[in-house]
Amino acid sequence: MIRLLLFLCFTTHLMAQTPGSLDPAFGSGGIFTTAIGSANDQGTDVAQLSDGKIIVVGNTFTDASALEDFFVMRLASNGAIDPTFGVNGKAIIDFLNGEDKAQAVEIQPDGKILVAGYTLGSAGFNSVVARLLPNGTLDAGFGTNGRVVVNFGSTDFCLAMRLLSDGKILLAGRAYNGITSDFALARLLPNGTLDNTFGTSGKQMLDLFGEQESINAIAVQPDGKIVAVGETTNVTSSFAVARLLANGSLDLSFGNGGKLKTTFGTEADAAYDVAIQPDGKMMVVGQSNSNTISDLAAARYLVNGDLDLSFSDDGKLLENISMFGDYAYAVALQADGKILMAGSSSGQQEDVALFRYLAAGTPDPGFGNNGRVLVDAGAAKQDRAVAMQVKDGKILLAGQTGSFSDNDLLLARFEQGPLMSPTISLADPVAYRLYPNPARAYTTLSFQLQDAGALLLQLYNAQGQLVQSWNTDTLQSGVHQFTLHFDGPLPAGLYCLQGLGKEGIILAVAP
Asked: pTM of the full predicted structure?
């Protein structure tokens, strides 16, 4: 039975969850490293299952003389290898007896695992995707024995993937047109065959600027439009951004004929990831080089492609944080509008870097050291994070650690800390109302928002441990109701429901 008490939340969990600190419940002090094969290993993407288990993908050499293959590994939520998956927790995937590079992972609602990348075989470089069953074996109902090869007719690479709401699979990267490389995309049906309603026979190549161009990341808007980001190079390089309609054609309402480029430095700029805000703005992150030094670079665009001047004064953020180079390879947006970027930062050596910025583009002083967290996973090792997942108040990074010739898989998990949600109108009579009361399997929260936004609601026990969390869609100002279904019976005691501004609700659960 849950009864509502109108008191301020206990703050025990705030001390246990210092924003930006490593999560001691994961791996060894928040860090997990392992060698997959006998030579160079690297993690390239990560996803979390509904039960908290973690899927990480990347590349490995099964022995020093062999060619590189995909690996897929499953871990328990605490970072322990799950021996019930594949062989001793991992699956190795080989395409065409060639050299294979995994770049992206997606989890289907039925638990099947999609892994995409590219292979170098006798026919040259081609885009590839494989599907595994939840136990780690290849899915014979997908493509040919669980594998699909997509050939654009010449040299092509798949560098990004998204699973669409209708079960179709969107691949993106670059393909050679005979003179230069173009933005290239392909869409597959759920069984792995090309979707003929996309582009030309399921494939689309876009020569945006007549330069060397590549997609490094994609995002899909709620209306089905596709935002593709990467780089375009002609002596020097710039961020390249394009928006496509769901059928693969350029969206002429965006930028200049569906495309745009943004320059930061004097040498080389590249965009590596993109996230779409609830208001439709696009957050793009990467790097910028001037005089061989790489700086963290980011830009935020309005829905029409114009730079958002409310971000970092001119829409562009350029940060020189360390002596020898800073990179942002991944971006995630918090429900409170703050921006997380992950990558690496190099002082005397390369360290895993996690940055958090306020929505206006200034470092968040409440996160790490003025918005910056650097982690050294091992003395004299080069550490790098290239992928990020944020779930249940945790920030999970994947990448590599080691030397340039002998890397191991690296995962690190950090505390996100409490989020500030839109302000609750305390004077309104429906603020902080729960019903039914008492509750058993669920309860409904009735509240009033003064400002529009999305809510992240988090339930903590009296020991400061996160019990469960819920996310709402973007809500307009006004009165709302949201039903909270509990995963299971709650032990008797006091709980704090946080996410309602500075204050929260104490829930008393009776036996």
From this structure: 0.83
Low-confidence ranges of the chain (pLDDT < 50): 1-16, 426-427, 429-430, 502
Tens digit of each residue's pLDDT (9 = 90 or more) over 218-227: 999 999 999 9
| Cα separation values, 45 from 24, 107, 332, 361, 456, Å | 22, 12, 14, 26, 25
Residues 6 or more apart in contact with residue 298 via CB below 8 angstroms: 283, 284, 285, 286, 312, 316, 317, 328, 331, 339, 341, 361
Length, in residues, of the chain = 511
What lies within 8 Å, CB to CB, of 159 at 6+ separation is 103, 104, 117, 118, 172, 173, 174, 214, 215, 216, 217, 230
Q: What is the pLDDT of residue 1?
A: 37
Q: CB within 8 A of 336, min separation 6: which ones?
A: 419, 420, 421, 453, 456
* Residue ranges of domains in the chain: 2-10+420-509, 19-415
Residue pair 301/281 in contact (Cβ under 8 Å)? The answer is: yes
**CB atoms inside a 10 Å sphere around CB 261:** 20
Degrees (nearest 5) of the Cα angle 366, 368, 371? 65
3-state secondary structure of 463: coil
pLDDT at 213: 97
Burial code (b: 16+ CB inside 10 Å, e: under 16) for 298-319 equals: bbbbbbebebbeebbeebbbbb
pLDDT at residue number 407: 87
In SS3 terms, 71-82 reads as: EEEEECCCCCEC
CB 241 within 8 A of CB 251: no
What confidence score (pLDDT) does residue 426 get? 46
Q: Residues 199-232: pLDDT tens digits?
A: 999 999 999 999 999 999 999 999 999 999 999 9
The DSSP H or E segment spanning 13 is: helix 12-16
Q: Do domains 2-10+420-509 and 19-415 have the same CATH topology?
A: no
Q: What CATH superfamily classification does 19-415 receive?
A: TolB, C-terminal domain (2.120.10.30)
Write the CA distances from 233 to 44, 65, 212, 473, integer angstroms: 24, 35, 5, 38
* Closest to 375 measured CA to CA, from 20, 41, 3, 7: 20
**End-to-end alpha carbon distance in the chain:** 7
E-assigned strands of 338-492?
339-346, 350-357, 372-375, 382-391, 394-402, 407-415, 433-435, 442-449, 456-461, 466-471, 478-485
**Token pair in block for residue 213:** 């161009």
Domain 2-10+420-509 part of CATH 2.40.50:
no
